[in-house]
């Protein structure tokens, strides 16, 4: 039996579910964009920094910086519309 809050609603219906997504690349952006539509989710993401394609290779080789495109996409996916 599920516990009820003081309004008589199930805690599963009222409590936010904490969810951590682990990944990188376009797939993580797509998953986060879809999950963000569920109002009862408290989303966090762990993003891989292993991207070495395209402009990320230039950023890494020329400036010694970690690639930013995957994390930037995840920030956009989690941002408010």
UniProtKB/TrEMBL annotation:
This is Gluconeogenesis factor. PANTHER family: GLUCONEOGENESIS FACTOR-RELATED, UNCHARACTERIZED PROTEIN YVCK-RELATED. Keywords: Cytoplasm. The keyword Zinc does not apply. Gene3D superfamilies: CofD-like domains (3.40.50.10680). Pfam families: CofD (PF01933). It comes from the Bacteria. InterPro entries: CofD (IPR002882), CofD-like_dom_sf (IPR038136), Gluconeogen_factor (IPR010119). One of its GO terms (molecular function) is LPPG:FO 2-phospho-L-lactate transferase activity.
């Amino acid at each position: 039996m599920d516990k009820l809050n003081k309004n008589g609603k199930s805690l599963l219906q009222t409590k936010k579910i904490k969810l951590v997504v682990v990944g990188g690349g376009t797939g993580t952006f797509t998953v986060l964009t879809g999950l963000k539509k569920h109002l009862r989710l408290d989303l966090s993401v762990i993003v891989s920094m292993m991207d070495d394609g395209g402009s990320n290779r230039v950023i890494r080789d020329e400036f010694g910086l970690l690639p930013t495109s995957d994390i930037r996409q995840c920030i956009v996916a989690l941002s408010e519309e």
